[in-house]
Design brief:
two-stranded antiparallel ribbon; 33% helix; single chain; 10 helices; TIM Barrel; NADP; binds NADP nicotinamide-adenine-dinucleotide phosphate; alpha/beta; eight-stranded parallel β-sheet
């Protein structure tokens, strides 16, 4: 399959479509300066990205909104050209908080709607304004998840025009089936955002999602920032992989470009994060070469089935998604 920059969108089951590459925007507050995120979004839009992945909990959604609005005002893009994905955090999964939380995101962005709104993790935490609710011993305070009730509240947001498409993130097969089999389901999840790259290729979840018209959006597609405060760094650095680097040499590309090309070539959306203008541009230059079938298979064989993002601090939550095989 050869993908060109001009048609780099894939259809969603609800009739909308998603650009196959987006800009990730998560950064630990200590490692980004004020304005880095806005600059990076502006460079991305100028480069040709039309998809931005963000979240209220990343604390930089206001910079994304500012950058998008600036590019619209400049006449560079129209609102309908941009695809923004926002995320519903774990402290807002109770149905009565869903719409006000989405409205908070829209207010921060200063936009009328988001293109995709996803349940960020299937685990509910104590509802309220404290995004990291913990008790006096530092233990996380959980809440009973009722993912179907959360989903119904999201469906109402779509019907009200606040969001174009609905999806999920970090859902395993059982949790996806819970929504897909919900009585009177009105809107299916169009996507599941999960970790996905050559060291964690997700063959089973990918197949299941393809069978149900659910697009996989690959987070940490380059193997994360390897920040040991939240990343399992026992798996070796993906960008240093020998095969990926030698394929890069063959095509006059970097290992990062080969890694991203691998996923988009098998229909997986990628959202690499960079706040470095040169790397933002580099990550988009993946439409002018194509990997052979054998190279795709060789890259698939790199799968180690080890996550960089394990979310182990929540492994005792009843809805922790990663105990299941997939
Ligand atoms: N739903 C979820 O639970 C979830 C979880 C994790 C991430 N996400 C989303 O997915 C996005 C991407 O994941 P991620 O941020 O974990 O990791 P990533 O995109 O795999 O990697 C980002 C790291 O790679 C560096 N980088 C970017 N382009 C590069 C290149 N061409 N060559 C070398 N290094 C490069 C970045 O540094 P520079 O910035 O300095 O370039 C940064 O340190 C996030 O930003 C977020 O939007 C979602």
């Amino acid at each position: 399959m050869y993908l060109s920059a001009a048609n780099h969108r894939i259809p969603l089951s609800d009739g909308n479509s998603i650009p196959i590459i987006g800009l990730g925007t998560y950064s630990q507050p200590k490692s980004a300066r004020k304005g880095d995120c806005a600059t990076s979004v502006k460079v991305a839009i100028d480069t040709g990205y039309r998809h931005i992945d963000g979240a209220y909990v990343y604390h930089n959604e206001h910079e994304i909104g500012e950058a998008i609005r600036e590019k619209i005002a400049e006449g560079k893009v129209r609102r309908e050209d941009i695809f923004y994905c926002g995320k519903l955090w774990a402290t807002s999964l109770v149905p009565e908080l869903v719409r006000p939380t989405l409205e908070k995101t829209l207010k921060v962005l200063q936009l009328d709607y988001v293109d995709l709104y996803i349940i960020e993790i299937p685990m509910a935490f104590k509802p309220g304004d404290d995004l990291n609710p913990r008790d006096e011993n530092g233990k996380w305070i959980y809440h009973k998840s009722d993912l179907c009730a959360t989903w119904e509240a999201l469906e109402a947001c779509k019907d009200a025009g606040l969001v174009k498409s609905l999806g999920v993130s970090n859902f395993n097969r059982r949790q996806l089936e819970l929504i897909l089999n919900k009585p009177e389901l009105k809107h299916k999840p169009v996507s599941n955002q999960v970790e996905c790259h050559p060291y964690f290729t997700q063959p089973k979840l990918l197949k299941f999602c393809q069978q149900h018209d659910i697009v996989i959006v690959a987070y940490s597609p380059l193997g994360t920032s390897r920040d040991p405060t939240w990343v399992n760094v026992s798996s070796p650095p993906l960008l240093k992989d020998e095969l990926l680097n030698s394929l890069g040499k063959k095509y006059c590309k970097t290992a990062a470009q080969v890694i991203l090309r691998f996923n988009i070539q098998r229909g997986v959306v990628v959202i690499p994060k960079s706040f470095n203008p040169e790397r933002v541009k580099e990550n988009f230059q993946i439409f002018d070469f194509s990997l052979t079938e054998k190279e795709m298979k060789d890259i698939e064989a790199l799968n180690k089935n080890i996550r960089f993002v394990e979310l182990l601090m929540w492994s005792d939550h009843p809805e922790y998604p990663f105990h299941d095989e997939y």
